[in-house]
Write the structure tokens for this entry.
Amino acid sequence: MSLYRIADLYVNMSPKYEHLKKYAEKYICEDCVPNDISDVIDIDISDEFIEERQKENPHLSLSDCEYMWYGAIFAYKMLDRNGFMLHSSAVVYDGYAYLFSADSGTGKSTHTSFWQQVFGKDEAVVINDDKPIVREVDGIFYASGTPFSGKSDLNEDVTAPIKAVCFIYRSEINEIKKIEPEEALRLVLEQTVRPRQEGGAIHLLEILDKFLTKVPIFSLGVTYSPESAKFAYNYLSKINKS
């Protein structure tokens, strides 16, 4: 197995196929020495398991199946470390992470690309374009890039405190409003991996209860133009400022 540093944790895994090998390369950390065994995650998937999943999903390659199931198992294991995956495009700018979530095809990636267009790719960094990890550490929720970024190769080994999460929709004007925790819980649950086991489901809800009290959640209507990025940043950057 090789050691990788992902979401400020250490992951032992042995990718066999090109997809995961390529995306995970920037996270490899062979010389790292974890200080605490609780910071180490082991993911060991047999060739037989991947082959069975490919037979069940003949439209996918073995490489696709390996990539998808490693990502799913990683997301499940994050629950034991106060974290969860949120289907979103996460951009870090000015020291904070901004997450934009919605159903596939709504335009999350388009919106964060406008952030890069307006603020520059070196300043506005997309740390994961599909499945960033959200994790609480010492009472603060952070977003982290992971190699599990869906069909996109946009991911970076970067972690930053979360400023806000926005559920976006297409609109004729740029508009934003705060979402109350009850509605936000429903939206988040629709965009994350939900454990089937009762214990895992309860643990996820416990994490989300903290998350929704500490991280502001918004509904964001965007025009899908560079102006939408300026509008979102100008509003969200002022959160918690007197």
